[in-house]
Amino acid sequence: MGMLKLEIPHTLDAAEAKKRVEALFSYWGKKYGVKSSWAGDVASYAGKVMGVSIEGKLTVAAKRVGGEATDPGFLLRGQAQKYLQKKFADYLDPAKKLEDLAKDD
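RE: above sequence
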């Protein structure tokens, strides 16, 4: 299976963006059992969400989060892209407090 490219722009500095991406991975870990590990500003993750195996890497930087994830295939690709864009947009929104994001999920 191929890979799905992820490019998420944001307005946060790299340290704040990383904290928020870590919080998102924590949420996915609790909800779906997704495992993540960090090497500097690069996160590796793997798990199963709603029966679909995912695996990938993300790099967090000032102004952008980018990387790739397992492409779930034609039938689920659009749904997966929408979900990821929404989750990252929520977690990287500077108007939202990090502690409030966990309450919304």
